[in-house]
């Protein structure tokens, strides 16, 4: 997100004229945004906000989803622990009733998680695949080859496999 600003500062320090203004994401628009105008700053701000939101939502959603699933699995483990460690003097019926109440709550939680995170997870999976494929296409159109290019392709491929 800071790359365009660093690129502009680098051009100013080295006396490059005319200064080219890059955006955060490589995109083409039907109008010119290469000059330091209000339109350039609007595009830059919009792309920074969109990219920041994408990063925050993706990381936060994945983390929260896993936290909910782990909490449900921990509750199941606690319920099984209660059954395995019952003593002779414990009230079996009260323990079963408590566990059944908890089980009903967990089923409601499961239904809510499925209703909320099902479409979001599917949307993130599809959009991540599209973004990754478009990035691979853009990288394949780069004219120069460096030592890091093969490493970058390998890392993106491994990320795709692990995601």
From TrEMBL:
Biological processes annotated in GO: signal transduction
Key words of the record: Cell membrane, Membrane, Olfaction, Receptor, Sensory transduction, Transducer, Transmembrane, Transmembrane helix
GO molecular function: odorant binding; olfactory receptor activity
Annotated compartments: Cell membrane
Membrane topology: Multi-pass membrane protein
Residue stretches spanning the membrane: 50-72, 116-137, 143-162
Classification via InterPro entries: 7tm6_olfct_rcpt (IPR004117)
GO cellular component, one term: plasma membrane
Protein name: Olfactory receptor 62
Organism: Meteorus pulchricornis
